[in-house]
Amino acid sequence: MWLRDEILKSIWHAFTALDVDQRGKVSKSQLKVLSHSLCTVMKIPHDPVALAEHFKDDDKGPLSNQGYMPYLNRFILDKVQEEFDVLEFNKMCWTLCYKKNISTKHLLISDDDAFKVWCISNFLSEDKYPLVMITEEIEYFLRKLMEAMGSGWSEEKFCDYKLQLHSKNNRLSAWELIELLGLGHFTKGMSRQTLSMGIGEVFQELILDVLKQGYMMKKGHKRKNWTERWFVLGPNSLSYYVCEDLVEKKGDIILDPTCCVESLPDKEGKKCMFIIKCTDKSFEISASDKKKKQEWLQAIQTCLQLLRLGLPSPHREARLRRRELRQRQQTEEDDLAERMKHLQAANENKQRQLEGMRKKMEEAAARAAEEEHRRKQTQLDLQDRYRLDLEREKMVRQQMEEQVAQKSSELEQYLLRVRELEDMYRRLEEALEDEKQAKQDEEAMHKLQASLLEEEAAKRAELERFHQQQQRALSQTEAEKQELVAEQRVKERELQAAMLQLEKLERERLGALEQYQEVSMKLERAANKTKTWKDKVAKHEGLVRLIQPGHKGPQRITNWGPASFTDVELELRKKSWQERKNQGAPAQ
Questions:
Q1: Euclidean distance between CA atoms 240 and 474, whole angstroms
Q2: C-beta of residue 516 within 8 angstroms of C-beta of residue 463
Q3: Contact 195, 109 (CB under 8 A)
Q4: Can you give the residue ranges of the PH domain (predicted)?
Q5: What is the pLDDT of residues 370-387, one digit of tens each?
Q6: Rounded CA gap, 258 and 31, in Å?
Q7: 302: Cβ–Cβ under 8 A, 6 or more apart, which residues?
Q8: Residue 57: what pLDDT?
Q9: Contact assessment for residue 473 and residue 587, using Cβ atoms and an 8 Å cutoff
Q10: What is the pTM of this model?
Q11: Looking at residue 276, what DSSP letter applies?
């Protein structure tokens, strides 16, 4: 009968292989395929909508192993009614997971041998997830393998390997165990065939529950002839095949608690005979020698004894005993650790008591020493008091001398600072005088510019008047034309002289403008110099307040340069000139 815990280990490997993203969850569509494969192998009628119905209220997407477990128990494992091929079941799970975890191309073992090692690892691993084999089970398996290959066990080599296992928390996964054997760490010098045969023998013993196997002669029931068969002893049956490849099975001898096995005397030319008596039939068998006969009798009797006691196969029982022993050892270690904690706590309590007594004794000794010290200290204090008074007087005198020296230094610094401020004040007054002179020059230039503009306006008015007179003269009579032409020539000469005078005034205006620009530059330099001294005065505690120049509004610019009159005055002059022009036109 299959064991649910062992079946769940193979399913766990298949479930983990479907978890591509390593998130611990598998999509429902992949779980449907896995569930269908499990039902097919375990001979369970498959319900295609059971998974969807079971998780119809679950909208969380992929399922974890814990989320899939209730469905697996209820709809698959609880419905198993008959025996199924466990080997085929393991093959299916192995096919789903091995390619995603390991490649056997660079290993010394084939895919079939790797599958057998994977099954053995699942069988010997602890019932905890993720599945791992601890050091004791690894040693048990390697000893079995060495024994099956006919090689001696190297305790020293395994001790060295245990040091390497310490970095992996003294445990291996199934894939690490396959790689360990495939790299030949413990099988150096062994051929691939020997290693494969050893793995196969251990696989048959641990996984297929083969207690013993070998060739023997069996007597037929109908023809009564003797035929050589390959016998395989399991926990509840003795199967026989044509040969050891186990391809053609000839029959099974079903063992139950009512069966018995007995030795037979030699007869019919056959030696080393024994008989297996079952409820409906008896089977006569002949071994090759007495040693083989005794081994087979003992193996079959052990098997029948286990059936009568309801115990599992020997290696399964040994595995349970090893686990129980480890649990007892762990319990004993935990108890020992607990007792050690209690003893340590009691020891610490005693240490604290002793420490308290020691401290009390030290305190008493300290008090006595303190009394003695106080007595001596009183005498020393009287001596030190006079010495301290003398030192205090010396210190006070030194402090007074230092204070006098400090005050003298501060006074010198203060006088030096006053001299610097006086010098700075003198320079600032010079800068202000320069600024005043620049302002006066600027006002003079403004006045000169205004006079030039007035002369220019007068000349322009005169020219306008000459022009009007000329026009009137031209419009009088044709008879006066010659006289007017002569007079016009005179007027033109006067006009040329006036133009020359106007050009002269223009040159004078340009010279005045250049002088104005020079005065402006001087004023700007004086302003910058005043600003520099203002900053210096502000840094020296602001003893002098600078005189700021007044605001200068925008100047009017005419065709002849800066004007000395405002926009309002210019508008008034424009209106006056326009009125004079309009009065002159009707007169002509």
A1: 159
A2: no
A3: yes
A4: 209-305
A5: 888 888 888 888 888 888
A6: 45
A7: 211, 314
A8: 52
A9: no
A10: 0.52
A11: E
